[in-house]
Design goal:
Elements (H helix, E strand, L loop, with lengths): L2 H4 L7 H6 L9 E7 L12 E7 L12 H10 L6 H9 L5 E3 L4 E3 L1 H15 E7 L3 H11 L15 H17 L5
Antiparallel strand pairs: 1-2, 1-5, 3-4
Helix pairs in contact: 4-7
Length: about 180
Amino acid sequence: MHAALVKPDILWRSADLLAQPNALPAAPGVYGWHFNQSPDAGLPAGRLLYVGIAPRRMTTHESKQNLRTRVRYHFRGNAEGSTLRLTLGCLLGLELRRVGSGKRLTFGKTGEQELTEWMAENARVCWLLHPEPWTAESAFIAELDLPLNLDQNRHNEFHAHLTNLRAAARSRARELPILI
């Protein structure tokens, strides 16, 4: 199962997925992110650095998230709704800001566009269908070196650095004026 994400047959770019909208299944599963250029000098390029799941663990309500909606959001959404985008933007030195009412944190219109362009150039994704992806995610995080995952990943040597970097970005954003 690990090979499907660690050494996949195909790594998809955002342009590929936009050109073939049904390539991403509207089903539950685990997705893995590889980067041909590292977002941080301390991280290797060209290998799996992050895994995510869709949907999150089911509780009392049914999630509308699936691989298609979640991966597309990571490619085109914003840092408020994507921990991957938040992490990448912080590593790339983009300025996190409060937007709208001031409760949401994103990289603003310009920063989010810059991040989207960086991801289009450097991010590659693969996926694995799984009926209960939260069980697979836990196993991947426990067994693989996934420096961009924070949840369940305190054992990773990059965890403290990334946690501090994201906390500093949030703190700085709270000091800056709200972007409208």
